[in-house]
Structures
1.
Amino acid sequence: FGFAFVALAAGTLISWIGGLHRLPYLYWGVWIFPLLLLAMLKDGRRQGAPLTLGKVKTVVWNKTFLWFLFIVLVLSVTHRMNDSFLGLYLKDAGATDDMVGWAWAISAFSEIPAFIVMGRYVHRFHELAVLGFAALFYALRWFLIGMIDDPWLLLAVQAMHSVTFGMFWITSVHYLARIIDPELRAT
């Protein structure tokens, strides 16, 4: 919810500050406070057994885990490319700064129901099959974005984020929690 509301506010704020070319100033303004808070953090106590190279090797050389990482890499690269260029693509299609904020908000709001549904039902399916399904939806989403040049239709396509990212994220976390030993999960 927080990200969606910030996305909506950001579109309006970008319009108010004078456009995307002033976005670095907004970023610095937003990041100064967390950086100051970061300087006040202290290390917590170490809990559990120390991490050993042998434990890491058992995970890293697991073929299933390596295939999983490959799938995640492919999906993540396409997803991050969309994140990086969505605003520019929308602007090139004639969208306003407010519409760019709405595109991000639609994505964020649409993933909430997907997180709820997938969190309840992902255990009923094989995770790699669900990731394959998410990959197919990603391909359909990128195809539609590539074919559409109307900013309003592009906003509608952003709702597919629920199926693509929501399904991808919950399934990935569930899969890792199942195949990785508890002492290695945070690593």
2.
Amino acid sequence: MAYTVGEMARRLGVPASTIRYYDKEGLLPFVGRSSGGIRVFTEKDFEWLRIIECLKKTGMSLKDIREYIELAMQGDDTIGERLALFEHQREVLRERMEQLQRTMDVLDYKCWYYETAREAGSVGTVQQLDAAQIPERFRSVRGELRSAPGTDRSSKETEGEIA
């Protein structure tokens, strides 16, 4: 079955302009055209577009996505190079996920902090808690927030918490 840009965009849940942009950026060399020059998409093209969307979500650059597509179109001689691209991007994504987890830990801590402050009626009460009074899962987060990189100050040595 053949699909137009609009039909394929609806199937993917993206604006048609996104697919046109991919084409302009050289990411769709595999897409056929009708005798009138109109893009004609197939089921196989749908799979390619899903891979492109996945790679974009990993943070892969359009340049690297284009390189992957070019390598794939060259055939089996480039399997190792394609694998290396995916292994590298997997590591990039892992690092990003670790950063996001650290960010989530800070947000969880701050939610606990303000929930506790609300119950106590003051942030001052929470600021005065020593490490043993803070849930264990938040102790390292609090310590990281209170110390500058390269310092060895304990949380008791620092002043207050940023409200």
3.
Amino acid sequence: LSGGIDSPVAAYRIMKRGATIIGVHCHSYPFTSRASIDKVKELAGLLSQYGGPIKLYLVPLAEAQKAVVQNCEEKYRVLLYRRLMVRIAAALAQKEGAQMLVTGEALGQVASQTVENICVTDAVATLPILRPLIGYDKEEIIAEAKKIGTYEVSILPHDDCCTIMMPKNPATRARLVDVEREETKLDMYALVHSSLNSIEIITHPNPPLT
């Protein structure tokens, strides 16, 4: 659950099908402000109106990102971040007894969301990854965000954990073998567990007063 437009809409759509959601927000504080954290708390409160209280995990990713920047080829950074986030989310899902991961990705919307790059990200998943918005265009996502009341919060400015330390020319058709080679330069187990050991949990975001 990011502070952007897409993931709250994806969460809403999966809640419409009767699923209980648990939010996982990866942030880059202190390399960025806490703006994205504050936004996600508010978005979780808005979404809780549709399906009850939402447990929200706030996961620091800054030190892991720093290791990626220092050790790995620049064009693969975002994919390496995303594979880290999938591993973290899968570990939390196992802890919670959750059966799937859900993201707000839409096909071809940004560099990390090409078919090739989605496959590279999915390669580390130990659970199915559902993408309710995969065939949506941006205008359709915006329209639904406005309908469910998350749009005005989502457009407030913040630094996203994947845009901080963004490569100038991200890989758009990455090969799994190349990304896995970059990961051999990292202690991935230690990075994942360091982030997991520093999480903050908000158990019951409350819906806003009306």
4.
Amino acid sequence: TGPEVSLSVFYLIPGALVGWFLGKRQAVIASIVSSLLWLVVELKFGRSYRHWFVPYCNGFLQFGMALFSSILLNVVRERQQTVFHEMAARKKAEMDLRLERALAEGIEKEQQRLGKDLHDGLGQHLVSVGFVAAMLKTKLEEKELAESNEAEELTELIADAIGQTRLISRGLFPVKLE
């Protein structure tokens, strides 16, 4: 191209790339270097100006554009990384919450199963043993044996065990059990 076409936009690219990939400090350095390079090329090969300070003012403006574009891209990049990190943290928190809920549901189901097993298994077995102990107590009383007091005590202990089993099973599975 001839000197009438400004190539200043091409001097913005290195600063912008440096700002995007390397950081603000390196972006400022790249902006200074590209602006100085543009100024040297403009003074040596560019058109002639009426006043000597015009290319320097243009160089200063070139530096401002390069600095603005490189720092702007760096800020955009940092914000993008922040958003990605926030999204990853949110996703991890969501997964942790799902895991906690699944764990709580599993614990609740296991408690319900244990409550049902206690009520339907051990509770029913204790009721049967209680009936047998009550029958034994009745037979011993009919024969007027002294062991009937011990059988009565055994019946009371079994009744207490049935009550404790029901309390434990209701604590594990608070729904009214059939």
